């Protein structure tokens, strides 16, 4: 455990969105501490906060309102993921997606935006896993039928493959990433309870 630093004002008067210990990076926190901080972030966003930027003032990891690298947490149900994905694709020239599972219920929900991206000359790369044999062949056929899309299946063998991440890039170097819990299924994209965090940044930033 890192002791509080007496010269750190964040340690002396911690905010709800500050790391509970004097650590410089998210990765230095335990899983329980990360979950607590995410829960507080969700509460702040639900209360109307527009976004947050990652900061390490005084060497203490924390989140602060606003900034060029604002975060947006969507939690599903009344705040579904699909509109955020659609917004990202609409603004992008290149979209990369990696998910553990693709379901025939989910691919048709996002396919119109995929087709629009490809029709305007954009690039679409998709990696789907065969982990636990959950991915449905019909979903893979739908993805493969997208003319111009690069679709790959990750063979897990005895291991695992469980990512859920999107990356959007635009010609003006603006971009965004979404990382969270949603696979390509109707429930995950619409009314299911899921947690996904979107971050805007410049292409070339370490976060994109």
Written overview of the protein:
With 208 residues, the protein is α+β, with helices and mostly antiparallel strands. The protein folds into two domains: 59 residues, no CATH class; 128 residues, Endonuclease, Chain A (2-Layer Sandwich). The strands form two sheets. It has a seven-stranded mixed beta sheet with strand order 3-9-8-7-4-5-6. A two-stranded antiparallel ribbon has the order 1-2. The longest helix has 16 residues. The chain is elongated, with a radius of gyration of 19 Å. The two termini are 30 Å apart.
Features:
208 residues, alpha+beta, 2 domains, two-stranded antiparallel sheet, 26% strand, Phospholipase D-like protein, PLD-like_dom
**How many structural domains?**
2
Structural class: alpha+beta
* Percent of residues in helices: 25-40%
Q: Which shape, going by the Cα principal axes?
A: elongated
Strand content: 25-35%
N-to-C span: 30 Å
Major sheet: 7 strands, mixed
In the CATH classification, which architecture of the largest domain applies?
Answer: 2-Layer Sandwich
Mean pLDDT: 88
* Number of extended strands: 9
| pLDDT < 50 runs, ≥5 residues | none
CATH fold assignment of the largest domain: Endonuclease, Chain A
Q: If strands are numbered along the chain, what order do they take across the biggest sheet?
A: 3-9-8-7-4-5-6
Give a quick rundown of the structure.
The protein has 208 residues and is of the alpha+beta class. The chain has helices at residues 9-12, 31-46, 82-90, 107-119, 137-144, 186-189, and strands spanning 52-55, 62-65, 71-76, 94-99, 123-129, 150-154, 164-169, 174-180, 193-202. Strands 3-9-8-7-4-5-6 form a 7-stranded mixed beta sheet. It has a two-stranded antiparallel sheet with strand order 1-2.
């Amino acid at each position: 455990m890192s002791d509080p630093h007496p010269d750190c004002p964040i340690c002396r008067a911690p905010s709800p969105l500050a790391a509970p210990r004097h650590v410089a990076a998210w990765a230095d926190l335990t899983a329980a501490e990360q979950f607590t901080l995410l829960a507080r972030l969700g509460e702040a966003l639900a209360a109307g906060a527009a976004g947050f930027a990652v900061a390490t003032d005084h060497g203490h990891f924390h989140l602060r309102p606003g900034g060029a690298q604002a975060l947006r947490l969507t939690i599903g149900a009344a705040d579904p993921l699909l509109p955020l994905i659609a917004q990202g694709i609409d603004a992008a020239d290149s979209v990369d997606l990696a998910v553990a599972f693709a379901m025939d219920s989910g691919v048709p929900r996002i396919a119109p935006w995929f087709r629009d991206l490809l029709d305007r000359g954009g690039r679409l790369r998709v990696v789907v896993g065969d982990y636990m044999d959950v991915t449905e062949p019909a979903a893979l056929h739908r993805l493969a039928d997208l003319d111009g899309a690069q679709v790959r299946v990750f063979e897990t063998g005895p291991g695992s493959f469980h990512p859920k991440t999107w990356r959007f890039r635009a010609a003006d170097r603006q971009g965004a990433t979404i990382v969270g819990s949603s696979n390509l299924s109707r429930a995950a994209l619409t009314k299911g309870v899921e947690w996904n965090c979107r971050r805007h940044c410049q292409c070339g930033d370490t976060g994109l």
